[in-house]
Write a structure and sequence with these properties.
Length: 295
């Protein structure tokens, strides 16, 4: 336990203060169960929350198992029910529901294996450095440096009644194919475990991404002349920062269209979910679909 905790990023305990309160997502699987066990061992006041999606026949059993795990670890526990239905973008919708229910600052049991998968999925989408940075290390992902083998070993040692999510082998989810097909193939081709290599790529790219984001922060994205004078990577970032809504930045094609408006190649362009971008007196503005002008 001490060896694993040394690789985690839980809040440091302070004997002069009450234990820091944390909310942990507890699905009942090995990763989230290890998260709760390690958070408790780190001296946190843990509230484990199981989000009951109700999407499969085993959902009630999973909730019961999660309650048993929380009881075994002597932490506060509750179940939250989500109104979710099967269909397109199920993984993304389930993730959004979990984050909304758990609230900001909740802890999740993502591991280095999840990090490697996320980096590969970003590559398959053609993402830039922000996407390739994958999951950002920090207090909400305290076990990101651990491997799934570590979490399984810990749960076995603690004799926790974990569950297996049958959807983790469903090939309709791209992450599962990356996990069960792509990563084993890469291991065979490279003749080594690709997970440390992919997590290192994410770390290196993230440092570069943070630096470029800092530089682009000095650019006013509504100033057409400033955009045209800036290095292209910084101009693109300034536009993405300006037009990001609800955490979703515009795609690269939309950014290119906005740059064309800035340099006068186009009189205006549409950006999905934002409105029409126009230029007046060297200033860019957003015209919402109802004709109003926004920032």
């Amino acid at each position: 336990m001490r060896e694993l905790l040394a690789r985690c990023t839980f809040p440091e305990p302070d004997r002069s203060r009450p234990p820091p309160p944390v909310t942990c997502a507890l699905s009942g699987g090995t990763d989230s169960s290890a998260l709760v066990a390690l958070a408790a061992a780190a001296g946190c006041a843990v509230t484990a929350v199981h989000v009951h999606h109700g999407l499969r026949p085993s959902a009630d059993h999973d909730a019961t198992s999660a309650a048993a795990i929380a009881a075994r670890l002597d932490v506060t526990f509750r179940v939250e029910h989500a109104d979710l239905h099967d269909g397109p973008n199920l993984e993304a919708r389930a993730r959004e529901v979990r984050h909304r229910i758990l609230g900001p600052g909740a802890l999740f049991g993502h591991t280095a294996d999840d990090q490697a998968e996320t980096t590969l999925l970003a590559m398959l989408r053609g993402s830039g450095s922000s996407g390739l940075s994958a999951i950002r290390p920090g207090p909400t992902h305290p076990i990101l440096a651990l491997r799934r083998a570590d979490t399984r070993r810990l749960c076995d040692a603690l004799d926790l009644p974990t569950v297996t999510d049958p959807t983790n082998t469903d090939p309709r989810f791209r992450r599962n194919r990356v996990r069960h097909e792509v990563l084993p193939l890469l291991a065979d081709v490279a003749d080594r475990d690709p997970v440390p290599l992919l997590t290192r790529i994410a770390d290196l790219v993230r440092d570069d991404d943070d630096f470029l984001a800092h530089l682009s922060g000095t650019i006013d994205p509504t100033d057409a002349q400033a955009l045209c004078a800036a290095p292209l990577p910084l101009a693109r970032r300034a536009i993405r920062r300006w037009l990001t809504r609800d955490g979703y930045p515009p795609d690269s094609a939309a950014v290119t269209r906005v740059l064309a408006v800035a340099d006068g190649s186009a009189i205006g362009c549409e950006v999905a979910g934002i409105g029409r971008i126009r230029r007046t007196n060297q200033r860019l503005r957003v015209e919402a679909p109802d004709g109003r002008t926004g920032a």
